[in-house]
Fold NAD(P)-dependent dehydrogenase (Short-subunit alcohol dehydrogenase family).
Amino acid sequence: MNQLSGKVVVVTGAANGIGRSIALQFSSLGAIVFLADIDEKRGEELEKSIREGGGEAYYIATDVSIPVSIESLFEIIDSYHKPVNILINNAGISEWKSPFELSLENWDRIINTNLRSVFLCSREAAARMPEGSAIVNIASTRAMMSEPNSEAYAASKGGIVALTHAMAASLATKRIQVNCISPGWIEVEDYAGLRKIDHTQHFSQRVGTPDDVARACIFLSDPANNFISGENLVIDGGMTRRMKYEE
């Protein structure tokens, strides 16, 4: 029996990239998907596409960097009189600037969008979730390794990993499992344009796709896998395990 049929799934940052794939895959398994995103055009297009395919989806314009927008999102979901079963905290932004050039305003915008939103969305969702529900947060391998000029993004993603196990502890008595996924290189635009070396530098011999992350979200949302909680699942084709020396 399909465990996701009729379940309510909330996906932040659902209109594009990884979030879009997550929403489509949950919908294909019969879930009712609420699409939260700041991109109204793409969000409405995705809602229409899912509905035309026989699924049930609702786009809700949401800026997760603004607390009242998150509150409004869940109040609108309440109006449908459906419990929230699964939350996927996917929304995120990045900006690569020297630490000497990154403004406090930009730091706050990245932290508030990527990290604070995870706490606020999780708190709102958990208050509405029945036992056996799941929260999956999308972090990044940049929580564990870095390139220059990525301080705000790395801090936000590292914070998500820590927040995940903290919330898993806090929500354990409600029987809500909380996990996160740290994707590596996930190509969301021009997969066909990748070079051979882009693929072969991975143990998997290929760069990742949004569907790789979406399948993991489904796995971690399955009540049959509720012995997994507080974990960070790295999906990067083995790159963080690859020993590399400069030639």
Summary: The mean pLDDT is 96. The domain at 8-237 is CATH 3.40.50.720 (Rossmann fold). The CA atoms of residues 179 and 227 lie 11 Å apart.
